[in-house]
Amino acid sequence: MDSLAEEDRDAIRLWRVYKTVHEMVHDRHYSVSQAEIDLSLEDFKYQYFRNNKVDRQAMTFLVQHNEDPSNQLLVFFTDSSESIGIKEVKKICEKMVQQSIMKGIVIYQKGLTPSANKDSQLPRIQPNDAVAKYYGLKRGQVVRIVRNSETAGK
After folding, report:
1. What is the separation of C-alpha 32 from the centre of its chain, rounded to a whole number of angstroms?
2. What pLDDT, in 10s, does the model give residues 52-101?
3. CB neighbours of 96 closer than 8 A, spacing ≥ 6?
4. How far apart are CA 72 and CA 93, in angstroms?
5. Does the pTM of the predicted model rise above 0.70?
6. Structural domain boundaries of the chain?
7. Any bridge partners for residue 100, and if so which?
8. Percent of the chain surpassing pLDDT 70
9. What's the first-to-final CA gap in the chain, in angstroms?
10. Cβ(132)–Cβ(126) under 8 Å?
11. Mean pLDDT of all residues in the chain?
12. Superfamily of chain region 3-116
């Protein structure tokens, strides 16, 4: 397979991901310029293509919500061509905590290792549960429930 063609396919694929994620956060009312959404493939390559590959870390960006600038979202593109593990997820979370960012999206290539996939580690709460209904919880949201427990010694 021609390596130039492979690099071109990778650039095109990541350009599409770039455009899609920018459109998505714009649709969620985060501040994204029309120029970012309309970025051409040639301009994308000029900005992010280095040493015969796309610089995924340079694609990482931070946006603010239009109605509440303190509501920020970090969109992080991982560099790893392998599945990312708990170590990488912790680094991303630490970066977010340092910058007081409470929301993030991680764009990765292969997948998450089982230890990094928190969905597999957390207990599920049913949508018809009284607490879920009270708080208006939706599928995929993560909550921490703290209550007194005689058996747990708390």
Report:
1. 16
2. 888 888 999 999 999 999 999 999 888 766 677 788 888 888 888 898 89
3. 74, 102, 104
4. 14
5. no
6. 3-116
7. none
8. 79
9. 61
10. yes
11. 81
12. RNA polymerase, Rpb5, N-terminal domain (3.40.1340.10)
